[in-house]
Amino acid sequence: MPTAHRLIIVIILTTLLLFGCITESKIISISSSYIEFNIENTPKEDADAADLIRPYRLKLETEMNIVLAVSELEMFKGVPEGILGNFITDLTLEKGNEYCIKNNIEKADICLLNNGGLRTTLPKGDITKRRIFELMPFENELVVLTLSGQKTKGLFDFLARVNGMPLAGASLGIDNKKPVNIIVGGDKFEQDKTYRILTSDYLAEGGDKMRFFLDPIKRENLGNKLRDAIIEYVAEQGDKGLTLSAQLNGRIYLVK
To answer: Does the CA dihedral 253-247-164-192 come out positive or negative?
Structure first.
């Protein structure tokens, strides 16, 4: 319950219905009133409810403040590539392919996410579960899409037009808004092949103008939330006594 006064606007609609021989009804008056509640005068049932949930709220607060790992540096978004985007897509591709193995499906070649989905930075120092929720507050789930080479080329065309997005498993140059020197998994991109892309369900459905994801050859839902994958990876690094780090490595670059 809040510690200050709360003001709740209660709109009361008074409707008189006439029955019997009268078949019509109409609203004859509308009134509104303001009711002020004081925490000291909280109704007993509300106080009982607050008491009931208090232990769960305290447990949640404790869990959210657990330090999962320590970061060596502050991670920011950026274009055409950013340290934060590199870190998140690299770990997502790693964890996503672990989920693929568990689900007995073929692993993904590429991970593509969007900068808009990363809602804050990761600071240097302690990384708590709360910070991961702030970074990724959405309930998006991971999916793997099998795309034709033509649609995959559309993915790289899109990246070149928008000057980059978080990407792992591939690299490209951007020359006058066109993709050049496209490499996937260490090999030159071939438009007559199919590729498997790991992304979020939001983007898979064409979110953030990623319409090249629509009508894939195959869509496979992994059943894991993107945020959970991040939490798992960070916690695993912390459990191993490893610190978090990332760097710019030219996976998306501007051709001068």
So the answer is: positive
